């Protein structure tokens, strides 16, 4: 339990490894259990604090800690025999012994890539300005990985951003890589593997950075900010994600997930038999009369969007992607992969249990994915009185991010990400009429329909993905379908790369090349991103190393998008000159309306090699990524630590 904790509310549910009393330091026994899964540092003179010590009350804590975590990456199986060792007891169905190595998931047996035999992986919960040290030990046989700390700026530790072949070499099987960074920016974040498709196979978890009472501008809006009130939602296959890449046509075509999970938990109904698994559902406990801060994290990987509602409860939205905003009430939260939203839930309904409902919306709506968790008031049974809600595509009430994205005017039924006022003051220089750089970035797909002779030309190996319709495609930004260099530019430089202005003459569209644009340190960068494709897809674009200011989000007609964008940009310039932009909320991940556009800006104050990409893992692996290279490596970037791992091609002279 975290802030402003009252002794009466120390009735804690130990149903996940992250629960427990945290204003206290915990009994030695609890601490020991906690340590089993997180590990203990060895061979170090630094005083490390345990995860439990670090997940303390930040409102009063004055000390800064060095928080240590040990992540063990493995191939693992859900519903295995470990689950027999740790059945919840009858007296308290919620109690799982903390050292339990059972992953239930949705009750379906499958292979996963786990971190510490948990799903999600261990929750990192620290106070602002703590140091976070994570040893990632890769025990997955013959699979490489990296872990990215989504939303963390990594100033001064740019080489710990966790992007393979950009900021580090991947962590090879059998080796351990230590990440260490300052928890400098506060808010709701998460971590996930940035290697290929590992994320949806299970390599993800929450990362929460709390603030002192004085530093948190939203402090007065809630009474409690509990460690257990993290709502991490994810999509889930019943097989490894690689089985869907590049994609089959006959059996399980496409990349629509089989199910959704809430904090790694849920149930699944087999539509062939109508049987439903009996796996646990997540339960969030509240006490009537209190206001609770909930931290919602979208850890989806596919093009499915998430809609989250809490029956009979309005949610007061207080932060987007970690950045506090002037609060507004909403009834449902629609989010895409990589987005986070903080809300305050006032537990003022009749004492009882209420459904927390998560549905898959957008392009995956035909799969009618539906998952449930429970909001339980103290003193009520944990079974809601009303029947389990079934799938419905869009919930009634005020929606955060309605799928039609009419974001240019206020409407009673929906509110867009660009319509919030940031609490932290916006630097007026961001409004300069002429930015130092204006990147106009059309993105979309290159369709190989009828071009099979190109795609499958012997001796060539272009990347591609096959969605449910069976037509292979590659994705691109500004006609470049990104492939990474063979070694990370941050530590080993880069020889050949492309940007939209200088495509190699002999590179045919879509040009497979490392897509990198150079930007001077402290320059004002404007990005105008538009979707040339549409067709229901709503791409969430994420920028590493920064949060950006959203200027505009809008729709375009289906044809003549390039010309329409000229009008949009002219209009944007008029608005800049007329000083019409008033809100400019910060985000690090933004949904681009289907076939529409987004305009954002950031002040490039953080040097580095920053990935900018669609957050759908299957779009990433076929090229929807690029890198903003900010600053000069020699003068602006810190040197990588001694013995930083290197990787390269090996091509000795022929003998
Ligand atoms: C499953 O339940 C649905 C709805 O009740 C019904 O239409 C369907 O026939 C059932 N299928 C099987 C295999 O029992
Ligand atoms: C709670 O929500 C249900 C529908 O989910 C509705 O039927 C009921 O009237 C609501 N109760 C209250 C007290 O608002
Ligand atoms: C519950 O709290 C919400 C949010 O503060 C408020 O809008 C609503 O009117 C309250 N309902 C009751 C029954 O007090
Ligand atoms: C907002 O956009 C819609 C269509 O994209 C348009 O019909 C409407 O006039 C616009 N509203 C404003 C205030 O510009
Ligand atoms: C960017 O930040 C730097 C350093 O704080 C500042 O000097 C510069 O004026 C800022 N530029 C813009 C356009 O905000
Ligand atoms: C991108 O490629 C398409 C198809 O070859 C071409 O029509 C278009 O002009 C290109 N755009 C740019 C910005 O090069
Ligand atoms: C492209 O052109 C460069 C230099 O003109 C040449 O070295 C390279 O081999 C060419 N690549 C292909 C794929 O033709
Ligand atoms: C889209 O088409 C409508 C009707 O032809 C037109 O009024 C509108 O201006 C167009 N939108 C844009 C962004 O050009
Ligand atoms: Cu995408």
From TrEMBL:
GO biological process, one term: iron ion transport
Plastocyanin-like domain mapped to chain residues: 106-212, 229-380, 491-633
Statement: the UniProt record of this protein carries the keyword Oxidoreductase: yes
Gene Ontology CC: one annotated term: plasma membrane
Gene3D superfamilies in the record: Cupredoxins - blue copper proteins
Molecular function via GO: copper ion binding; oxidoreductase activity
Keywords: Metal-binding, Oxidoreductase, Signal
Span of the signal peptide: 1-23
Tagged with keyword Oxidoreductase: yes
Family classification: Belongs to the multicopper oxidase family.
Protein name in the entry: Oxidoreductase OpS5
């Amino acid at each position: 339990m975290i802030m402003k904790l009252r002794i009466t509310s120390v009735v804690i549910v130990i149903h996940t490894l992250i629960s427990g009393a945290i204003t206290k330091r915990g009994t030695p026994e609890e601490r020991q259990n906690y340590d089993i899964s997180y590990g203990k540092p060895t061979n170090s003179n630094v005083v490390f604090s345990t995860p439990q010590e670090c997940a303390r009350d930040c409102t009063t804590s004055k000390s800064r800690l060095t928080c240590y975590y040990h992540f063990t990456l493995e191939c693992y199986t859900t519903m295995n025999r470990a689950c027999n060792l740790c059945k919840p007891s009858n007296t308290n169905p919620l109690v799982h012994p903390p050292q339990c190595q059972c992953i239930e998931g949705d009750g379906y047996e499958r292979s996963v890539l786990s971190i510490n035999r948990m799903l999600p992986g261990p929750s990192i919960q620290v106070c602002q300005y703590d140091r976070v040290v994570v040893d990632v030990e890769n025990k997955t046989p013959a699979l490489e990985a990296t872990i990215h700390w989504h939303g963390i700026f990594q100033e001064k530790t740019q080489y710990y951003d966790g992007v393979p072949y950009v900021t580090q070499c991947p962590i090879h099987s059998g080796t351990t890589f230590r990440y260490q960074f300052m928890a400098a920016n506060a808010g709701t974040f998460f971590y996930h593997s940035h290697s290929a498709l590992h994320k949806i196979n299970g390599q993800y978890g929450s990362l929460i950075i709390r603030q002192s009472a004085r530093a948190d501008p939203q402090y007065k809006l809630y009474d409690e900010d509990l460690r257990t009130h993290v709502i991490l939602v994810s999509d889930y296959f019943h097989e490894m994600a690689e089985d869907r890449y590049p994609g089959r046509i006959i059996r399980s075509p496409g990349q629509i997930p089989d199910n959704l999970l809430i904090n790694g938990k849920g149930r699944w109904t087999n539509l062939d038999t109508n049987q439903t698994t009996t796996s646990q559902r997540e339960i969030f406990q509240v006490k009537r009369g209190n206001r609770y801060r909930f931290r919602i994290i979208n850890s989806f990987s596919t093009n499915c969007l998430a809609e989250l509602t809490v029956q009979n409860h309005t949610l007061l939205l207080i932060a987007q992607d970690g950045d506090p905003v002037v609060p507004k009430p909403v009834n449902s939260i629609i989010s895409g992969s990589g987005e986070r939203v903080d809300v305050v839930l006032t537990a003022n309904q009749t004492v009882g249990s209420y459904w927390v409902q998560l549905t898959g919306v957008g392009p995956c709506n035909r799969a009618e994915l539906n998952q449930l968790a429970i909001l339980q008031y103290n003193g009520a049974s944990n079974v809601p009185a009303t029947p389990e809600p079934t799938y419905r595509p869009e919930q009634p009430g005020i929606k955060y991010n309605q799928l039609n994205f009419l974001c240019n005017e206020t409407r009673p039924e929906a509110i867009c990400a660009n319509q919030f006022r940031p609490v932290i003051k916006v630097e007026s220089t961001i409004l300069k009429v002429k930015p130092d750089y204006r990147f106009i970035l059309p993105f979309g797909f290159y369709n190989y329909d009828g071009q099979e002779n190109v795609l499958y030309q012997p001796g060539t190996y272009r990347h591609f993905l096959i969605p449910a319709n069976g037509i292979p495609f590659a994705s691109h930004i500004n006609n470049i379908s990104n492939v990474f260099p063979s070694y990370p530019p941050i530590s080993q430089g880069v020889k050949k790369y492309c940007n939209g202005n200088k495509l190699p003459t002999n590179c045919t569209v879509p040009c497979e090349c490392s897509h990198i644009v150079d930007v001077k340190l402290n320059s004002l960068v404007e990005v105008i991103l538009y979707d040339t494709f549409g067709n229901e897809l709503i791409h969430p674009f994420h920028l590493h190393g920064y949060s950006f200011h959203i200027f505009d989000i809008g729709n375009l007609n289906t044809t003549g998008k390039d010309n329409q964008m000229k009008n949009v940009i002219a209009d944007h310039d008029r608005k800049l000159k007329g000083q019409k932009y008033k809100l400019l909320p910060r985000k690090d991940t933004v949904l681009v309306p289907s076939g529409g556009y987004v305009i954002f800006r950031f002040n490039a104050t953080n040097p580095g090699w920053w990935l900018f990409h669609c957050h759908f893992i299957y779009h990433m692996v076929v090229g929807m990524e690029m890198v903003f290279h900010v600053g000069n490596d020699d003068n602006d970037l810190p040197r990588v630590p001694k013995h930083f791992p290197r990787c390269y091609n090996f091509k000795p002279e022929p003998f």
